[in-house]
Amino acid sequence: MFFKDIIGQEKIKTSLRLSLQDETLPHALLLLGPEGSGGLSLALAMARALVCTDLQEGEPCGVCSGCSKSLKNIHPDIHFSFPTIGKDALSDEFLPQWRQALEENPYLNAYQWLQKIGAEGKQGNITRKECSRIIHKLTFKSFESKNRVLILWMPEYLGLEGNRLLKIIEEPPQDTFFILVAEDQDLILNTILSRCQLVKLPALHDEDIQQALHQKTSISDEKARSIAFLAEGNFNMALQYVQLSEHGSEADNSGLFLDWLRKCYKGEGVAIAKWVDEFAGAGRENQKFFLKYGLHFLREYLFLKTTGRNEVRLLPNELDTAQKMEKVLSLDKVEKMSNLFSDTMYYVERNANPRILFLDASIQMHKIFKNTA
User: Fold this and answer.
1) What CATH number does residue 27 fall under?
2) I need a surface site. Which of 61, 116, 170, 186 has the fewest CB within 10 A?
3) Do 349 and 111 contact (CB within 8 A), yes or no?
């Protein structure tokens, strides 16, 4: 991953390249941005620049020994720490899966990663033993490069164990760099935040996502534009929409969701039961995306209803339905539906029976529409 390959974030990339070129990069950096904004990709590019022996205006050369190894994520002076499963688990135990995950999608989220290593319903964490391992690793001299780098992905999973790293983050060994990549500042210890220089990443622009999809996938420009529109600045979500589409399982979330709304509004028991039976076999990821789409629709509907403006992130058929629903869907009902979708997504992730789950959700939706919830 080079800076030039990272989607969008041009101002931040320019600033980081200049810091690398001038050797003014802080020794503890926290990249904070929403899912799919490119924090991990930026961390990888910085790490590769730090071990490159022939840096070209802040960009790794791509041909030296350091670049060859770092591009495969096997450089001995680039260390990774990330959420794992198990009380005493170490990140090093999961490095093969981690390298594969980075190769497949450096914009992945924590849930995808934990599922990849078999977490299922288990809670991910960065353990006390992992924190001790980080300190131990960084006490030794570097192997090949002048610099050493630790990329700590999702420090939100450190919890109170993060206090063990305070001293080494504040006073790292010479030529040692910490690059933390996070999504939720509220879940990070203030003692860690105060020891890092914060770089806030905005969500990606639709145009950047559309261009990246056009370059990295075989979908049409029209499809790329539609997916970028729905992804709301999240390239990870855009890639998953593409994957579902390529496997023929996208099933038009827009049409599917609007059809479900109509059935729930009318309270057609037989039709709802048939819809639930079919949707129950869609698979957990499809079901999650369906609910995420539902939350997206409600957010845009809320904007439409409160402002009266049609400049919303809805496709023409969605906007038409949203405008027709204004008479029957109050702000109170939107709040109840949003809570219902979030709760349903929670249970989908925990392997609840999909038929029971979505049948119950359909009944609750009908009650919300009819003011009996």
Assistant:
1) 3.40.50.300
2) 186
3) yes
CB 292 within 8 A of CB 342: no
Burial class, 34, CB count within 10 angstroms (exposed 0-12 / middle 13-18 / buried 19+): middle
Residue 236 is assigned to a structural domain of this protein: no
Mark whether 42 and 185 lie in a shared domain. Answer: yes
210 within some domain: no
In a domain, residue 212? The reply is: no
pLDDT digits (tens, 9 = 90+) for 161-212: 889 999 999 999 999 999 999 999 999 999 999 999 999 999 999 999 999 9
Rounded to the nearest 5 percent, the helix, strand and coil shares of the chain are 60, 10, 35
Query: pTM score, two decimals?
Result: 0.75
242 torsion bin: left (phi>0), alpha (psi -120 to 50), beta (else): alpha
pLDDT tens column, 48-73:
999 998 888 888 888 899 999 999 99
pLDDT in tens, 215-237: 888 888 877 887 887 788 999 98
Task: Assess whether 295 and 364 both reside in one domain.
Answer: yes
- Please check whether residues 64 and 191 belong to one and the same domain: yes
261 and 171 assigned to the same domain: no
Residue at which a domain ends, from 185, 200, 215: 200
Helix (H) or strand (E) holding 115: helix 110-116
Residue 290: which domain range? 251-369
The fraction of the chain above a pLDDT of 70, given in percent, is 96
Alpha-helix runs per DSSP H in 217-283: 221-231, 235-246, 253-266, 269-279
Contact 60, 52 (CB under 8 A): yes
Calpha distance 243→220 (Å, rounded): 14
Query: b/e for 314-327, b at 16 or more Cβ within 10 A?
Result: beeebbebbeebee
